[in-house]
Amino acid sequence: MGLATLAMGLVPGYAQIGILAPIIIVALRFVQGVAVGGEWGGAVLMAVEHAPPGKRGFYGSWPQIGSPLGLVLSTAAFSAVGVLPDDAFMSWGWRVPFLLSSILIIVGLVVRLRIMESPVFAQLEASGSTARMPVTEAITRHGGSVLGAAGAFIIINTVFYLVTVLGLSWATTHLGIPRGEFLGAVLVAAVIMCFTVPLFGALSDKVGRRPVFAAGAILVAAFAFPLFALIETMSTPLLFLGVIVIMGLGHPLMYGPQAALYSEMFPPQVRYSGASLGYQIGGMLGGLVPLVASALLLRYDNASWPMAALLAVIAVISLLSLLTIRARYADAPAKETTA
Fold first, then answer.
1. DSSP calls for 115-184
2. Reported pTM
3. In this predicted structure, what is the pLDDT of residue 328?
4. Residue 286 has pLDDT above 50, yes or no
5. Whose CA is closest to 262, among 6, 286, 254, 122?
6. What is the C-alpha separation between 163 and 186, in angstroms, rounded?
7. According to the model, what pLDDT value does residue 332 have?
8. Count of helix runs (H) and strand runs (E) in the chain
9. N- to C-terminal Cα distance for the chain?
10. Would you say 124 and 37 are in contact if contact means Cβ atoms under 8 Å apart?
11. Could you tell me which of 71, 244, 221, 234 has the C-alpha nearest to residue 158?
12. Is 172 exposed, middle or buried (0-12, 13-18, 19+ CB in 10 A)?
C-alpha cells in the first residue's frame, strides 16, 4: 500500500511517457486497493476479536478511523499545495503529498510487526481448527455472505469517492467553486467522522449492526438530491452543510458498525478471508461508480441529477444487500472458538 502510494508521486508525466502515465497510475491504484482490502480484514478483526463482550462495535470502529484520519492528512496536504499557482500544482505540487506518505510506511511497518495475534485465532491455531484453504471455504460454504457483504459495502465506497474525488472535480471545474473551499468542507467532515465513526460503532452494540447501517443507507438515499442541490447554490455554508451531512453522518452510520457486522457473518476459521473478500469485491464495484458517473456527466452536459440518482440507486441496492446479512457468529469471543 505504502510503496504503491509513493510510486504515484514518482510516475513520469504524460509529456515524458505519453499514455503510459495514466495507465501506470491506474495500475498503482489497483495495487493500493488489493493491499488495503487484505490488510483491512486483519486490522478490524484484530480489534473485534480483542473486544470484551458487548463492545465489538465500538472496538471494531477504531481501525475504521484510519480512513477519516487519512482523509484529514491527505486533504490538509493537498490544501497546502493547492495554494500553488496552477502551473506549479500541475507540474510538481500534486506529487508532494504522495512523496510525504513515505513517512507512514515506517509507522505502519512498526505497528504491524509488533502486534500479536488475537486470542480467538491463537486458540484456533492451538486446537488445530484452522481452515486449510480459508478463501476457498469462504466462497464455497459462505458465498452468500460474501456477496451480501460486498453489496452492502458498495454504497460506502460510492459515497467516499463520489464526494471526495468526482464531486471535487465536478464542483471546481464545472461550478467554479475554489478547490480550497471544497477541500475545506471535506476536511471538516473528515474531522467529524473521527468522532461519529466510533459513536455509531458503539451505538450498534446497543441497537444492533443492521439498524445503524440501514439508517446510514436510508439517509444517503434520501439526501442524494439535496446534496448536489446544496453544492450548486455555490454558498459556502450550504456546501459545508451538504458535505458534512453525507460524509460526517451518512457514511459513518454505515462505516462505524461495518467491522463488527462483517466479523459476525463468518465463523473464526474463515473470518479473515470472508470479511476481506466482501470488502474487496464491494470495493471494486464501488470503485467503478466514479467512471459511470463521469460518463453520465458527459452524456448529460455536467448536470448533477444523474450523479444524485446513481447515488440514491446504489444506496437502495446496498440496503437490499444488507437485508440478506445474518450475524450468525455474534457470540462472545471465548465461546466462538468452539464454533
1. PPPPHHHHHHHHHT---SSHHHHHHHHHHHHHHHHHHHHHHHHHHHHIIIIIIHHHHHHTS---HHHHHH
2. 0.82
3. 66
4. yes
5. 254
6. 8
7. 41
8. 19, 0
9. 33
10. no
11. 221
12. middle
Q: One-letter amino acid identity for 298?
A: L
Alpha-carbon gap, residue 229 to 198, rounded angstroms: 29
Cβ within 8 Å of residue 231, ≥6 positions away: 167, 171, 175, 177, 238, 239, 242, 243, 304
Assigned C-alpha cell, 75: 486533504
Contact 187, 72 (CB under 8 A): yes
Closest CA to 281 of 134, 143, 160, 132: 143
- Identify which of 41, 71, 5 has the alpha carbon closest to the alpha carbon of residue 279: 41
Which CATH code is given to the segment(s) 2-336?
A: 1.20.1250.20
Question: Which pLDDT tens digit goes with each residue over 121-144?
Answer: 656 555 555 556 777 877 888 788
Domain ranges of the chain: 2-336
- Region 267-287 average pLDDT: 84
Summarised one tens digit per residue, pLDDT across range 147-185 is 999 999 999 989 988 888 888 889 988 898 988 889 889
Distances (CA, A) of 213 to 155, 249, 251, 277, 297: 11, 11, 9, 19, 29
Nearest in space to 89 (alpha carbons), one of 180, 6, 2: 180
Residue tagged 460486498 (cell numbers): 150
Contact 2, 101 (CB under 8 A): yes
Number of C-beta neighbours around residue 222 at 10 A: 13
Mean pLDDT of the region 30-55: 81
Residue with cell 460474501: 146
